[in-house]
C-alpha cells in the first residue's frame, strides 16, 4: 500500500512534518528560566504569584491559583466544593459529565465519592448534546461539568437556562480551550470555577502546569490551602477558611486545617507563564487563521465531517469524523497519515465508558451514548499550531483525497 502514497523519509524512517504539537518557546522563556536559576529560588514564589495575577486579568476573573497540572486543577476544583461554608457537596451527590473528555475530568469525581452520570455529546460541536443534558438533570443533580472540547465553547446560554433556579454548580474543564470566547466572555469563566492546562501540547506551555480561576473569594482561599498541604501559611491574615490567622508565625506556618495536597508549581513554571501569556493573543489569532483554511478545505467533504464552531473557538486541534454511510474505516486512514508524517490521535478519550477503569466508578449512562461511540470508532484529530499550516493542511487534504474524500 505504501507505494500508492508520497512518504517523506530519511534513511527509511518516516518524517513527522505535521506534528500534533510543537514548542511555543523562544529565547524569552530560556532567559526567564535562567533568571530563576540565578536567583536560587525554585519553589513557588513571586513569579508564580505574578503569573496568577496576569492570567486572571487576561481571562477576566478575580482570582487565579496555579498548580502543577490541569489534572490537579480539576482535583482541587472538585475538592473545594466539599469544604465551603454553605451548600457543600456530599459523597453520593450526582454530577453530570459528557461521555467524551480526558480521564482526569472524571477521576476527581470518583475519588470524592460522587455519583457520575454520563451524557452523550453532539456529533457536530463535540460538546454536550444539550437536549440530552436537559433531560438528564433531576432533583438529585448537584454539579454539571462543562468540558469545552478541542477549543470549542459550549453553548452556555442554553446551559444557564437548564440550571436556572436549581441548586446546581457549574464547573468548567477548559483545559483544551484557553482563549476561546462565547458571547464576548472567555471560556473557563462561566462556572463557579474553571480549570486550564499549560502542558506542552496546549495553547501555552509552562512545561507542566494548570490554573483554577474563580470570582468567589471563599473558594479562592480554600484553593490556596488545598494546594499546599491544607495548611494556613498561604492564606491572608483574614480569610474564609479560619477567619483570622494567629500572629504567631512559628506555630501558624505549620497549622493544618484542610485535607490538602502538594500540587504546587515551581518558580520556573511561573516565570515561563509570564512570557507565554504575552504571546497568547497572537497564538490564538494564528490558530483561528489556520482554522479558516481547514474549514474551507474540509467543510463539504464527502467522507469526513468536522467540528462545528460555537462562539469563537481557540481550535486546539482539527477533528475529522468519518461520515455515516462512507465506506471508509479509521485504521487504514490513520495508518496512511502516519506513514506520511501526519500525526493524529483519537478525539480526546473517545467514549470514556469503554475503558476498564470504569469498573471502579459509581456511575450511570443516561439514555444512550450513540454519538460518543461514533467518534470513538470513526473520529480522529490532527494538530493545530501557532504558525501557519497552509502547506500541512494542503498535504492532509491531498492524502485523504486518495480515499475518495
What do these coordinates show?
The protein has 405 residues and is an alpha/beta fold. The chain folds into two domains: 27-273, Aspartate Aminotransferase, domain 2 (3-Layer(aba) Sandwich); 279-354 and 366-401, Aspartate Aminotransferase, domain 1 (Alpha-Beta Complex). Helix content is 35%, strand content 16%. It contains twelve helices and 17 strands. The chain has helices at 27-39, 46-59, 70-80, 103-111, 130-136, 156-163, 217-227, 249-252, 267-298, 330-339, 370-378, 390-401; strands at residues 9-10, 13-14, 63-67, 94-98, 115-119, 141-147, 169-173, 181-182, 185-186, 193-197, 210-214, 238-239, 243-244, 304-306, 317-322, 363-365, 379-383. The chain has an eight-stranded mixed beta sheet with strand order 3-11-10-7-6-4-5-16, with helices on both faces. Strands 14-15-17 form a three-stranded antiparallel beta sheet. β12 (238-239) and β13 form a beta hairpin. α2 (46-59) runs parallel beside α9 and α3 crosses α7. The chain is globular, with a radius of gyration of 22 Å. The model is unreliable at 1-7 and 9-14 (pLDDT under 50).
Keywords:
405 residues, alpha/beta, Aspartate Aminotransferase, domain 2, Aspartate Aminotransferase, domain 1, 2 domains, 17 strands, globular
Our count of helices gives 12
Largest sheet: 8 strands, mixed
Rg estimate, integer Å = 22 Å
Helix content: 25-40%
Can you identify the CATH superfamily of the largest domain?
Type I PLP-dependent aspartate aminotransferase-like (Major domain)
CATH architecture of the largest domain: 3-Layer(aba) Sandwich
CATH class of the largest domain: Alpha Beta
- End-to-end gap: 18 Å
Structural class: alpha/beta
User: How many discrete domains?
Assistant: 2
Mean pLDDT: 95
Query: Per CATH, what is the topology of the largest domain?
Result: Aspartate Aminotransferase, domain 2
What would the principal axes of the Cα set say about the shape? Answer: globular
Amino acid at each position: 500500500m505504501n507505494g500508492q502514497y508520497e512518504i517523506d523519509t530519511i534513511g527509511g524512517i518516516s518524517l513527522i512534518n505535521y506534528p500534533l504539537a510543537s514548542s511555543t518557546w523562544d529565547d524569552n522563556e530560556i532567559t526567564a528560566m535562567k533568571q530563576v536559576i540565578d536567583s536560587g529560588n525554585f519553589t513557588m514564589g513571586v513569579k508564580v504569584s505574578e503569573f496568577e495575577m496576569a492570567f486572571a486579568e487576561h481571562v477576566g476573573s478575580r482570582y487565579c491559583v496555579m498548580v502543577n497540572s490541569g489534572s490537579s486543577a480539576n482535583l482541587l476544583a472538585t475538592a473545594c466544593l466539599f469544604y465551603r461554608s454553605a451548600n457543600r457537596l456530599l459523597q453520593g451527590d450526582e454530577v453530570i459529565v459528557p461521555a467524551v473528555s480526558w480521564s482526569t475530568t472524571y477521576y476527581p469525581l470518583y475519588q470524592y465519592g460522587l455519583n457520575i452520570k454520563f451524557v452523550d455529546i453532539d456529533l457536530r460541536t463535540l460538546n454536550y448534546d444539550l437536549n440530552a443534558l436537559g433531560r438528564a438533570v433531576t432533583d438529585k443533580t448537584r454539579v454539571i461539568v462543562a468540558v469545552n472540547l478541542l477549543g470549542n465553547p459550549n453553548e452556555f446560554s442554553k446551559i444557564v437556562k437548564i440550571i436556572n433556579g436549581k441548586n446546581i454548580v457549574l464547573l468548567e474543564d477548559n483545559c483544551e480551550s484557553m482563549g476561546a470566547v462565547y458571547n464576548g466572555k472567555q471560556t473557563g469563566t462561566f462556572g463557579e470555577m474553571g480549570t486550564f492546562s499549560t502542558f506542552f501540547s496546549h495553547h501555552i506551555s509552562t512545561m507542566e502546569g494548570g490554573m483554577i480561576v474563580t470570582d468567589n473569594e471563599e473558594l479562592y482561599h480554600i484553593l490556596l490551602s488545598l494546594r499546599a498541604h491544607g495548611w494556613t501559611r498561604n492564606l491572608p491574615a483574614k480569610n474564609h477558611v479560619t477567619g483570622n490567622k494567629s500572629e504567631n508565625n512559628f506555630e501558624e506556618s505549620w497549622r493544618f486545617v484542610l485535607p490538602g495536597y502538594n500540587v504546587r508549581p515551581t518558580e520556573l513554571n511561573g516565570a515561563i507563564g509570564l512570557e507565554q501569556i504575552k504571546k497568547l493573543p497572537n497564538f490564538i489569532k494564528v490558530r483561528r487563521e489556520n482554522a479558516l483554511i481547514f474549514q474551507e478545505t474540509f467543510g463539504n467533504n464527502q467522507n469526513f465531517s468536522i467540528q462545528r464552531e460555537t462562539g469563537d473557538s481557540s481550535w486546539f486541534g482539527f477533528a475529522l469524523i468519518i461520515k455515516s454511510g462512507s465506506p471508509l474505516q479509521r485504521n487504514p486512514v490513520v495508518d496512511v497519515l502516519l506513514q506520511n508524517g501526519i500525526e493524529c490521535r483519537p478525539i480526546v478519550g473517545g467514549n470514556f465508558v469503554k475503558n476498564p477503569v470504569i469498573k471502579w466508578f459509581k456511575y450511570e449512562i443516561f439514555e444512550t451514548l450513540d454519538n460518543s461511540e461514533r467518534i470513538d470508532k470513526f473520529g480522529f484529530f490532527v494538530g493545530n499550531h501557532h504558525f501557519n499550516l497552509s502547506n500541512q493542511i494542503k498535504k492532509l487534504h491531498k492524502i485523504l483525497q486518495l480515499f475518495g474524500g
